[in-house]
Write a structure and sequence with these properties.
This protein is an alpha+beta fold and 128 residues long. The radius of gyration is 16 Å and the shape is globular.
């Protein structure tokens, strides 16, 4: 099956850091700052959103690789903006550059890869 996913498409998601997003709350650290797992989740979600509307009904993407740097801390209440750029398409494999900023500057950057799957077929394969 051919997919209408083209290099160069982008997506942006904005959010605000809450107590539930902190390293202390998630157990990834002891401080009340935006956690690395939440930043990665935001980057994955932004990448997924980048291609969602370009896939046929019944298809989605799953994350298969993440390589990011968390450059600086963001406190509760800070606005976060994440951008994903689809840089390469290799069949069903999609490669993204991802970046995130808070109100003071860049907080994270890296790459993310996703794979196009048929949702129903994928769930059948993973059922025990």
């Amino acid at each position: 099956m051919e997919f209408n996913v083209k290099e160069g498409i982008t997506s942006t998601i904005e959010t605000c850091v809450t107590e539930n997003d902190t390293a202390r709350k998630l157990g990834s650290g002891n401080l009340d700052v935006f956690s690395t797992p939440m930043m990665i989740a935001l980057m994955e979600n932004t990448s997924k959103s980048c291609v969602d509307l370009h896939l046929p009904y019944g298809y989605t993407t799953v994350g298969i690789e993440v390589n990011v740097k968390h450059l600086k801390a963001s406190v509760v209440g800070m606005k976060i903006r994440c951008e994903a750029l689809l840089t390469k398409v290799e069949g069903k494999r999609l490669f993204f550059n991802v970046q995130a900023w808070d109100e003071a500057g860049k907080i994270g950057e890296g790459t993310h890869a996703r794979y196009i799957v048929n949702s129903e077929d994928f769930m059948k394969r993973v059922q025990l």
